[in-house]
Write a structure and sequence with these properties.
Layout lengths: L7 H13 L4 E4 L11 H11 L4 E4 L2 E2 L5 H14 L4 E6 L4 H7 L6 H19 L3 E5 L4 E6 L12 E5 L2 H10 L2 E4 L9 H7 L2 H17 L8 E5 L2 E4 L2 E4 L17 E3 L2 H15 L1 E5 L4 H11 L1
Parallel strand pairs: 1-2, 2-4, 3-4, 4-7, 7-8, 8-9, 9-13, 10-12
Antiparallel strand pairs: 5-6, 10-11
């Protein structure tokens, strides 16, 4: 999603340009502090209004900041307003700063993931549009009928992003789209981070997702797999995710999440990634004009 700043006509023009260039979707992140300012739900609504075919999504909402009852109402309305162009991306929350500046308790990962699992159960129950009751450890819903019914049935696609085993297994059980991330915690050794960023590490996570989906009685081939490129170098353009800013130089040079070369080579790399892993959705960074030739090559 382009950064929201005046003039708004220019912001809307950029969205329409992204659509015309052949991109599938724009995604907006969900953070607090350190200059983050865009409200995901409001900007998705405005972006959908400015376009006609471009999908809008969250990459990803921090579950702990949204009660699932209120989130359901917003997402169902957004799916109606966008005429079925919404993808709901959810995560358990990982950025400590978000919690510190808001005063929301940063619970241990197992608690946050369990709360996310309950939120998804509530959302899916309400998306059905029938009278719904739910009693869990974190949420209790009594006799609520979800409305309005979303355009996409049984519900807008749910994308879950994560890098650890618990999150990937949850995604395999519940998500339509699984965003597979490397774990880049400063608590990990450089050797472990190199493995997280490696082709072998990515394949291990793909295999984990497929195995967990099969164990849950789902067809693994029905899951859409997604990754975010963390470093993109094409011609004069170099974009790098802030997640890499603290890593030593060279740690991610050979990573499948580092895209480098001319347009043809980058396009071939993405096709090879899809062929080898089944990953078919790629986030290409923040400069849509720079990566548009790659998209055009793939159309």
């Amino acid at each position: 999603m382009p950064v929201l700043r005046p003039p708004l006509a220019t912001w809307r023009d950029r969205l329409r340009q992204i659509e015309d260039l052949g991109f599938h979707a724009v995604a907006v992140s969900d953070h607090l502090g350190d200059g983050w300012s865009m409200d995901p739900l409001l900007t998705m609504a405005s972006a959908a209004e400015a376009t006609t075919t471009l999908r809008v999504g969250t990459g990803v909402l921090c579950n702990d900041f949204y009660h699932p009852v209120h989130l359901h109402r917003s997402i169902s309305n957004l799916d109606v307003l966008s005429e079925g162009r919404l993808t709901l991306g959810l995560g358990a929350g990982y950025r400590l700063t978000d919690y510190q500046v808001s005063g929301v308790p940063f619970d241990p990962a197992p608690v946050r993931i369990a709360r996310l699992a309950e939120s998804i159960a509530v959302l899916k129950g309400l998306f059905a549009g029938e009278r719904f009751d739910f009693t869990g450890e974190h949420f209790r819903i009594s006799g609520l009928t979800g409305a309005p019914k979303p355009v996409q049935r049984p519900h807008p696609p749910i994308m879950i992003g994560g890098g650890g085993r618990r999150m990937l297994e949850l995604a395999a059980r519940e998500a339509d789209v699984v965003n597979i991330n490397p774990r880049l915690s400063k608590d990990l050794s450089i050797e472990r981070i190199e493995h997280e960023l490696s082709t072998e590490g990515l394949r291990e996570k793909v295999d984990l997702v497929r195995s967990a989906a099969h164990a849950a009685g789902r067809d693994p081939d029905e899951l859409r797999l997604q990754v975010s490129m963390l470093d993109v170098r094409i011609a004069e353009h170099h974009w790098s995710s802030g997640l890499l800013s603290w890593l030593p130089e060279g740690v991610y040079d050979k990573s499948p999440l580092a895209l480098e070369g001319d347009v043809a080579r980058c396009a071939d790399t993405l096709l090879e990634l899809r062929e080898e892993t089944g990953i078919s959705e790629i986030h290409l960074g923040g400069n849509f004009l720079a990566v548009a030739p790659i998209v055009n090559k793939l159309l």
